[in-house]
Amino acid sequence: MYKKFGKRLLDLLISLAAQIAAFPAVVILALISRATMGPGVMFVQERPGAGGKPFNLFKFRTMSRETKRQGKELSDGERLKSYGTFFRRTSLDELPELWNVIKGDMSLVGPRPLLMQYLERYSPEQARRHEVKPGITGWAQVNGRNALTWEERFKLDVWYVDHVSFWLDAKILTLTLWKVIKREGINQPGHQTTKEFMGVGHQE
To answer: Which one in 63, 75, 106, 197 has a CA-CA gap of 20 to 30 Å to 17?
Structure first.
């Protein structure tokens, strides 16, 4: 019953309240982003939702649009400015995803929506993460986030799919607040966020 009806109701109640409460902060952050990194404060990218159906994910942009300097490609680390780093460490860049939850593309809790090209790289078991809507936070996020290997993250995602409940979602939301405050698991060692998933059997 919760998975079919209650989860959506909880998503709407919390995301609408959070959207209203966070509106002043969103406006201020958008203005700061505009002044710091120029036009285009929003990062919009197609991601797979439930069943692999694509939707447009909204986040605050954290990287500059500059891609080359003196003929050389810039790394993500070079494009990630101090302002963007602050956004990621505090998870403020994900505030616009509340709109995705209100629209029904996402849930507050679920496996994180990754890249479209990953769909063909999953094993059948890993692909089960798309049996539910993707979430702003999830079981993998409160158990290591980007510090986990891909295999570990996908196992946690599938475990969540098999154990969805109100109490589990409440636990994940509570732990998420604690993780954000402690700023744990933001990066993989040696990377700004996490390495690209290359597919089953590929060396991590």
So the answer is: 63
